[in-house]
Design brief:
The protein is α/β, with parallel strands linked by helices. It contains 16 helices and six strands. Helix content is 49%, strand content 9%. It has a six-stranded parallel beta sheet with strand order 3-2-1-4-5-6.
Protein backbone atom coordinates (compact mmCIF):
# COMPACT_ATOMS: atom_id res chain seq x y z
CA UNK A 1 0.00 0.00 0.00
CA UNK A 2 1.30 3.48 -0.78
CA UNK A 3 2.43 5.45 2.23
CA UNK A 4 0.91 8.89 2.48
CA UNK A 5 1.63 12.02 4.47
CA UNK A 6 -1.64 13.84 5.11
CA UNK A 7 -2.08 17.36 6.46
CA UNK A 8 -5.41 18.64 7.72
CA UNK A 9 -5.82 22.43 7.78
CA UNK A 10 -8.56 23.44 10.21
CA UNK A 11 -10.46 26.70 10.11
CA UNK A 12 -13.13 27.94 12.51
CA UNK A 13 -15.75 25.68 10.93
CA UNK A 14 -13.86 22.62 12.19
CA UNK A 15 -14.52 23.60 15.81
CA UNK A 16 -18.16 24.57 15.23
CA UNK A 17 -19.58 21.10 16.12
CA UNK A 18 -17.97 21.48 19.57
CA UNK A 19 -19.62 24.80 20.38
CA UNK A 20 -17.02 27.34 19.26
CA UNK A 21 -17.81 30.52 17.31
CA UNK A 22 -16.64 31.35 13.80
CA UNK A 23 -14.14 34.14 13.18
CA UNK A 24 -16.82 36.80 12.88
CA UNK A 25 -18.84 35.04 15.56
CA UNK A 26 -15.94 35.49 17.99
CA UNK A 27 -15.78 39.18 17.12
CA UNK A 28 -19.52 39.52 17.71
CA UNK A 29 -19.31 37.77 21.08
CA UNK A 30 -16.48 40.02 22.24
CA UNK A 31 -18.44 43.10 21.17
CA UNK A 32 -21.56 41.78 22.92
CA UNK A 33 -19.56 41.27 26.13
CA UNK A 34 -18.45 44.89 25.92
CA UNK A 35 -21.92 46.30 25.12
CA UNK A 36 -23.62 44.27 27.84
CA UNK A 37 -21.01 45.25 30.44
CA UNK A 38 -20.09 41.65 31.31
CA UNK A 39 -16.43 42.21 30.37
CA UNK A 40 -15.91 45.31 32.53
CA UNK A 41 -15.30 43.69 35.90
CA UNK A 42 -12.84 41.16 34.51
CA UNK A 43 -10.93 43.82 32.56
CA UNK A 44 -10.83 46.19 35.53
CA UNK A 45 -9.60 43.45 37.87
CA UNK A 46 -6.88 42.33 35.45
CA UNK A 47 -5.74 45.63 33.89
CA UNK A 48 -7.12 48.42 36.06
CA UNK A 49 -9.80 51.05 35.60
CA UNK A 50 -8.02 53.03 32.88
CA UNK A 51 -8.03 50.06 30.51
CA UNK A 52 -11.64 49.18 31.32
CA UNK A 53 -12.60 52.74 30.35
CA UNK A 54 -11.18 52.08 26.87
CA UNK A 55 -13.56 49.18 26.24
CA UNK A 56 -16.27 51.23 24.42
CA UNK A 57 -13.69 52.58 21.95
CA UNK A 58 -12.20 49.12 21.50
CA UNK A 59 -15.60 47.54 20.82
CA UNK A 60 -16.81 50.28 18.50
CA UNK A 61 -13.65 50.24 16.38
CA UNK A 62 -13.64 46.44 16.23
CA UNK A 63 -17.22 46.22 15.00
CA UNK A 64 -16.88 49.08 12.52
CA UNK A 65 -13.72 47.60 10.98
CA UNK A 66 -15.73 44.72 9.49
CA UNK A 67 -12.92 42.25 10.17
CA UNK A 68 -12.49 39.24 12.41
CA UNK A 69 -10.90 40.16 15.73
CA UNK A 70 -7.57 38.48 14.92
CA UNK A 71 -7.36 40.27 11.54
CA UNK A 72 -8.17 43.59 13.17
CA UNK A 73 -5.66 43.21 15.99
CA UNK A 74 -3.00 41.92 13.59
CA UNK A 75 -3.28 45.15 11.62
CA UNK A 76 -3.52 47.37 14.73
CA UNK A 77 -0.61 49.50 15.92
CA UNK A 78 -1.82 49.94 19.49
CA UNK A 79 -0.10 47.37 21.68
CA UNK A 80 -2.51 48.10 24.54
CA UNK A 81 -5.42 47.09 22.30
CA UNK A 82 -3.58 43.90 21.30
CA UNK A 83 -3.03 43.01 24.96
CA UNK A 84 -6.67 43.73 25.78
CA UNK A 85 -7.81 41.78 22.71
CA UNK A 86 -5.84 38.70 23.73
CA UNK A 87 -7.58 38.69 27.08
CA UNK A 88 -11.06 39.20 25.61
CA UNK A 89 -10.47 36.33 23.18
CA UNK A 90 -9.17 34.13 26.00
CA UNK A 91 -12.20 34.71 28.23
CA UNK A 92 -14.56 34.06 25.31
CA UNK A 93 -12.92 30.82 24.16
CA UNK A 94 -12.67 29.64 27.78
CA UNK A 95 -16.41 29.63 28.28
CA UNK A 96 -16.90 27.54 25.14
CA UNK A 97 -14.50 24.77 26.18
CA UNK A 98 -17.03 22.28 27.57
CA UNK A 99 -16.48 18.55 27.95
CA UNK A 100 -20.19 17.83 27.46
CA UNK A 101 -19.99 19.40 24.00
CA UNK A 102 -18.39 16.19 22.70
CA UNK A 103 -21.36 14.11 23.86
CA UNK A 104 -23.71 16.61 22.24
CA UNK A 105 -21.77 16.49 18.98
CA UNK A 106 -21.81 12.69 19.05
CA UNK A 107 -25.57 12.61 19.70
CA UNK A 108 -26.13 14.98 16.76
CA UNK A 109 -23.79 12.91 14.54
CA UNK A 110 -21.42 15.89 14.27
CA UNK A 111 -18.43 14.44 16.15
CA UNK A 112 -16.05 14.33 13.21
CA UNK A 113 -12.99 13.91 15.44
CA UNK A 114 -14.37 10.50 16.44
CA UNK A 115 -15.08 9.55 12.82
CA UNK A 116 -11.54 10.48 11.83
CA UNK A 117 -10.05 8.60 14.79
CA UNK A 118 -12.04 5.49 13.87
CA UNK A 119 -10.34 5.40 10.48
CA UNK A 120 -6.78 6.56 11.17
CA UNK A 121 -5.98 5.15 14.61
CA UNK A 122 -3.22 2.51 14.52
CA UNK A 123 -3.52 -0.96 16.01
CA UNK A 124 -1.30 -0.18 19.00
CA UNK A 125 -0.61 2.88 21.10
CA UNK A 126 3.10 2.82 20.26
CA UNK A 127 2.29 3.30 16.58
CA UNK A 128 0.72 6.70 17.23
CA UNK A 129 4.14 8.30 17.12
CA UNK A 130 4.68 7.13 13.53
CA UNK A 131 1.31 8.17 12.09
CA UNK A 132 1.77 10.19 8.93
CA UNK A 133 -0.82 12.79 9.88
CA UNK A 134 -0.40 16.45 10.87
CA UNK A 135 -2.97 19.04 11.90
CA UNK A 136 -2.55 22.76 11.21
CA UNK A 137 -5.23 24.79 12.94
CA UNK A 138 -6.20 28.46 12.99
CA UNK A 139 -8.27 27.88 16.13
CA UNK A 140 -7.35 28.91 19.66
CA UNK A 141 -9.28 26.11 21.35
CA UNK A 142 -7.82 22.72 22.31
CA UNK A 143 -10.83 20.59 21.42
CA UNK A 144 -8.82 18.43 19.01
CA UNK A 145 -6.12 17.69 21.58
CA UNK A 146 -8.70 16.90 24.26
CA UNK A 147 -10.58 14.59 21.90
CA UNK A 148 -7.41 12.75 20.85
CA UNK A 149 -6.17 12.07 24.38
CA UNK A 150 -9.66 11.01 25.49
CA UNK A 151 -10.04 8.60 22.59
CA UNK A 152 -6.48 7.25 22.96
CA UNK A 153 -7.02 6.49 26.65
CA UNK A 154 -10.33 4.78 25.90
CA UNK A 155 -8.98 2.82 22.91
CA UNK A 156 -5.69 1.56 24.29
CA UNK A 157 -6.41 0.15 27.74
CA UNK A 158 -2.82 -0.29 28.80
CA UNK A 159 -0.38 1.24 31.24
CA UNK A 160 1.62 2.83 28.45
CA UNK A 161 2.20 6.55 28.28
CA UNK A 162 -0.81 7.82 26.31
CA UNK A 163 0.26 11.42 26.84
CA UNK A 164 3.67 11.15 25.17
CA UNK A 165 2.20 9.22 22.24
CA UNK A 166 -0.52 11.82 21.57
CA UNK A 167 2.06 14.57 22.06
CA UNK A 168 3.96 13.06 19.13
CA UNK A 169 1.12 13.93 16.71
CA UNK A 170 1.98 17.35 15.23
CA UNK A 171 -0.77 19.90 15.99
CA UNK A 172 0.29 23.39 14.96
CA UNK A 173 -1.77 26.36 16.18
CA UNK A 174 -0.64 29.08 13.78
CA UNK A 175 -2.53 31.74 15.78
CA UNK A 176 -1.60 30.26 19.13
CA UNK A 177 -3.79 28.53 21.68
CA UNK A 178 -5.53 29.04 25.00
CA UNK A 179 -2.72 27.72 27.20
CA UNK A 180 -1.83 24.04 27.22
CA UNK A 181 -3.53 21.01 28.66
CA UNK A 182 -1.98 19.45 31.75
CA UNK A 183 -0.52 16.49 29.80
CA UNK A 184 0.91 18.52 26.92
CA UNK A 185 4.53 19.42 26.38
CA UNK A 186 5.19 22.90 25.04
CA UNK A 187 8.25 24.61 23.66
CA UNK A 188 6.70 27.95 24.67
CA UNK A 189 6.09 27.00 28.33
CA UNK A 190 2.43 27.98 28.05
CA UNK A 191 0.27 28.27 31.15
CA UNK A 192 -1.59 25.07 32.01
CA UNK A 193 -5.38 25.20 31.80
CA UNK A 194 -7.47 22.04 32.02
CA UNK A 195 -10.09 21.54 29.35
CA UNK A 196 -13.45 22.79 30.59
CA UNK A 197 -11.91 24.35 33.70
CA UNK A 198 -14.18 26.82 35.49
CA UNK A 199 -13.78 30.37 34.24
CA UNK A 200 -11.22 32.47 36.10
CA UNK A 201 -10.16 35.90 34.83
CA UNK A 202 -6.67 35.68 36.32
CA UNK A 203 -6.02 32.30 34.70
CA UNK A 204 -7.47 33.46 31.39
CA UNK A 205 -5.08 36.40 31.45
CA UNK A 206 -2.10 34.12 32.08
CA UNK A 207 -3.23 31.91 29.19
CA UNK A 208 -3.71 34.78 26.74
CA UNK A 209 0.06 35.02 26.17
CA UNK A 210 -0.35 31.97 23.94
CA UNK A 211 -2.54 33.90 21.46
CA UNK A 212 -0.77 35.34 18.41
CA UNK A 213 -1.61 37.88 15.71
CA UNK A 214 -0.20 38.67 12.29
CA UNK A 215 3.34 39.94 12.63
CA UNK A 216 4.00 38.41 16.06
CA UNK A 217 7.30 36.55 16.15
CA UNK A 218 5.65 33.43 17.58
CA UNK A 219 3.03 33.41 14.82
CA UNK A 220 5.67 33.66 12.10
CA UNK A 221 7.59 30.77 13.65
CA UNK A 222 4.47 28.58 13.68
CA UNK A 223 3.76 29.44 10.05
CA UNK A 224 7.32 28.41 9.16
CA UNK A 225 6.67 25.02 10.78
CA UNK A 226 3.29 24.72 9.04
CA UNK A 227 4.83 25.48 5.64
CA UNK A 228 7.38 22.71 6.10
CA UNK A 229 4.61 20.17 6.74
CA UNK A 230 2.58 21.39 3.76
CA UNK A 231 5.63 21.05 1.49
CA UNK A 232 6.05 17.45 2.65
CA UNK A 233 2.39 16.47 2.25
CA UNK A 234 1.01 14.10 -0.37
CA UNK A 235 -2.52 15.13 0.55
CA UNK A 236 -3.91 18.34 2.05
CA UNK A 237 -7.46 18.61 3.36
CA UNK A 238 -8.95 21.99 4.27
CA UNK A 239 -11.79 21.67 6.79
CA UNK A 240 -13.97 24.63 7.78
CA UNK A 241 -11.36 26.91 6.23
CA UNK A 242 -12.18 30.27 4.63
CA UNK A 243 -9.31 30.38 2.07
CA UNK A 244 -8.38 33.96 2.95
CA UNK A 245 -5.76 35.08 0.38
CA UNK A 246 -3.39 36.32 3.11
CA UNK A 247 -3.40 32.93 4.82
CA UNK A 248 -2.77 31.10 1.55
CA UNK A 249 0.13 33.47 0.85
CA UNK A 250 1.60 32.89 4.32
CA UNK A 251 1.44 29.16 3.62
CA UNK A 252 3.32 29.68 0.32
CA UNK A 253 0.52 27.55 -1.04
CA UNK A 254 1.61 28.04 -4.65
CA UNK A 255 4.70 25.97 -3.88
CA UNK A 256 3.05 22.88 -2.41
CA UNK A 257 3.51 19.68 -4.37
CA UNK A 258 0.66 17.61 -2.92
CA UNK A 259 -1.11 15.40 -5.42
CA UNK A 260 -4.47 15.81 -3.70
CA UNK A 261 -5.72 19.13 -2.34
CA UNK A 262 -9.30 18.91 -1.18
CA UNK A 263 -11.75 20.14 1.44
CA UNK A 264 -15.00 21.89 2.27
CA UNK A 265 -16.11 25.20 0.78
CA UNK A 266 -19.42 26.22 2.31
CA UNK A 267 -19.97 29.94 1.65
CA UNK A 268 -17.51 30.14 -1.25
CA UNK A 269 -19.03 31.37 -4.50
CA UNK A 270 -18.36 30.03 -7.97
CA UNK A 271 -16.09 32.94 -8.94
CA UNK A 272 -13.90 32.49 -5.87
CA UNK A 273 -13.87 28.73 -6.43
CA UNK A 274 -12.62 29.19 -9.99
CA UNK A 275 -9.93 31.59 -8.77
CA UNK A 276 -8.80 29.08 -6.11
CA UNK A 277 -8.77 26.27 -8.65
CA UNK A 278 -6.48 28.25 -10.94
CA UNK A 279 -4.19 29.09 -8.05
CA UNK A 280 -3.83 25.41 -7.15
CA UNK A 281 -3.14 24.45 -10.73
CA UNK A 282 -6.35 22.49 -11.14
CA UNK A 283 -5.49 20.11 -8.25
CA UNK A 284 -8.07 21.60 -5.87
CA UNK A 285 -11.27 19.67 -5.28
CA UNK A 286 -13.77 21.25 -2.89
CA UNK A 287 -17.16 20.01 -1.71
CA UNK A 288 -20.03 22.24 -0.63
CA UNK A 289 -20.90 20.09 2.36
CA UNK A 290 -20.51 20.02 6.13
CA UNK A 291 -17.44 18.40 7.64
CA UNK A 292 -19.44 16.04 9.83
CA UNK A 293 -22.48 13.77 9.51
CA UNK A 294 -23.28 10.65 7.51
CA UNK A 295 -23.23 12.68 4.30
CA UNK A 296 -20.39 14.97 5.38
CA UNK A 297 -16.92 15.49 3.97
CA UNK A 298 -15.09 13.33 6.51
CA UNK A 299 -17.33 10.35 5.73
CA UNK A 300 -16.82 10.91 1.99
CA UNK A 301 -13.06 11.44 2.27
CA UNK A 302 -12.30 8.52 4.58
CA UNK A 303 -14.31 6.07 2.52
CA UNK A 304 -12.32 7.13 -0.53
CA UNK A 305 -9.00 6.73 1.29
CA UNK A 306 -10.03 3.34 2.64
CA UNK A 307 -11.02 2.13 -0.81
CA UNK A 308 -7.73 3.37 -2.30
CA UNK A 309 -5.65 1.43 0.22
CA UNK A 310 -4.05 4.50 1.76
CA UNK A 311 -1.70 3.84 4.69
CA UNK A 312 -1.11 6.50 7.36
Amino acid sequence: MPERYIVFVLGAGASDPYGFPSGLGLRNEVCKDIRSGTAYDDVRNVFGINVSNSLPTFGSNLMNAGLSIDEWLGAHRRNDFKELGRFLISRCISRHEKILAFEKADHEKRHWYAKLWEKIRPRTLDELSSMNVTFITFNYDRSLEHALITMARATYCSNNDHESMVNSIPIIHVHGQLGRLEWQTSRDKLTIRKYGEERNASLEHRCDSGIHFLGDEAAESDFDIARAHLQRANEIHFLGFGFHPDNLKRFSIDQVKAEVISGTCIGIGSTEYESLSRRFGGRLFLKRMNIEGDEGYIHHMLDRLENSGTQY
